[in-house]
Amino acid sequence: MRKPTCIIYVRLSRDSDTSTSVASQTAACEEYAARNGWRVLFIADDVDVSGASRLENRKGMARVLAALDEADFVIAAKLDRYARSVLEFSRLLRATDECAATLVTADGALNPDTSRFMVNLLSSFAEYERDVIKARITASKKHLRTVGRWLGGAAPYGYKLIKRDGGTYLDIDREAADILRDCAEKLTQHGASMTSLTRDLNSRGVHSPADHARKRDGRKTRGTKWSTTTLRDVMITPAARGFLVQAAQDKPRSALYLVPVLDAKGEPHRVGPELFDADTWTTVREAIDRRAVGRGKTRTGKALLLHVAACSECSGPMYHQKRITKGLDYSTYVCPKGVGKYGIHDSNVIQASGLDGQMESEFLAHFGRFHLMTEVATGGQDVSREIHETEQALDNLSGNLASLPAGGRAAQTAIGQIGSLEEKLEALLKIDAVPLRTEWVRSGRTITDEWAARDTHGRNAMLREFGAVVTVAPLAKSAERRFSAARSGITLEGPTWVRDDPAAAELAAIAIMESEGRKAA
Predict the structure, then answer these.
(1) pLDDT in tens, 449-496
(2) What predicted TM-score, i.e. pTM, was given to this entire model?
(3) Residue 332 to residues 320, 359, 478, Cα–Cα distance (Å)
(4) In angstroms, rounded to a whole number, what is the distance separating the alpha carbons of residues 388 and 367?
(5) Which CATH number fits domain 5-130: 3.40.50.1390, 3.30.300.30, 3.30.950.10, 1.10.3720.10?
(6) May I ask the CATH architecture of the domain 148-294?
(7) Alpha helices in 219-277 (DSSP H)
């Protein structure tokens, strides 16, 4: 006689060792199936999945739906494991009816003899419970925003949660904070790109934010990788300033749109120490914005002379064309306006390795012994960043005020915050009138040292900062097809500090030549 068949379904919003864990749910369902003499086809699970989510959006439930024709029963530990929405549960019930399968629960609330009335009644209670929980969480978060405490959930990467003064706050997670600070330095001081930073983190086996949190909490890691989006989000979020944050009005909850929660005076609520100070955070965000590439746009490749090499015929950029054959590099720089039957001038192609080597040699010969300089503000008081942040806070509050009920408590709070911020802005604008000077100071590294420390992306950024341009002429028709330095002309304007103070740069160059002359003698 054929044994009835069943599928076991397990769902959990967060895995733990409680009575609702994956293991305990699975054990209860297996025992129920054994007691009834049913054969288990497979076990489908959804971990870290809300019961309010659509059935098709859960991997485990999607697998159950695809196999309903093969099963007589579907078992879950409790009714709310299936869904916490009447609509979703009704859709599941309709799907099982069409396949002649029956939903049951290991706790006995649903069994093969349970009527449809009981199913709908219990699912209504599950949805009611979800609404009660949602209302309780919303009220709790509103209170926490008012008193300036952490709203709940996982800590941002670089932080850990601590309990003090009757509430939850952030504290620095030293391991993760060091990773972010190192990335910030490479990005802002050494010309690294987000792509190269992400590749480096993954090659070094640095845990992604999600896996770092799991490891810290003693949970099993999943092997997720860093992406440029993940790295961008953890570096630009205002939470890295130690601020309590929320999504801006009518914006998705993405790091791009997070803004600080403000107190009654319009100042950000601080719930932890700064991972980045204000100037570093602003510099990092500006550097990332400058490097941002939208969808559908051409991304920069790993080429030293991208946006540096130019065609002598049309003055257009030459692009890197990678070609590796049998381990040998035959890559080239090509002008796209000299390719094919629609080209507007003769073909202009040159060996990439030869041109790269020529530029590196000439660049370091000119500037290698110079000290790398950094710009430092002196005199006056630079409050431009504070002015920008205050104006941004005013814009956000003004936008929120329009959507609040006139005369309500929330509107009155926003009006008070706007008044405080306007007074602060007026005072800052007076300070900003004080003249500010900048001067260039030595970083302690030579250009050669910095060149050696940078990857290809960083070196490309340095060449562009130094105003480097290499103009390439087409290969003469009678010339041999090999690299010739005579085809390229290199122009080096020099770094900003040279262009700002050419007299001082000339003295530095003379000192270098004198030093080299003494060594030769």
Answers:
(1) 989 988 888 888 889 888 899 999 998 888 888 899 999 999 988 776
(2) 0.51
(3) 6, 15, 20
(4) 36
(5) 3.40.50.1390
(6) Alpha-Beta Complex (3.90)
(7) 228-236
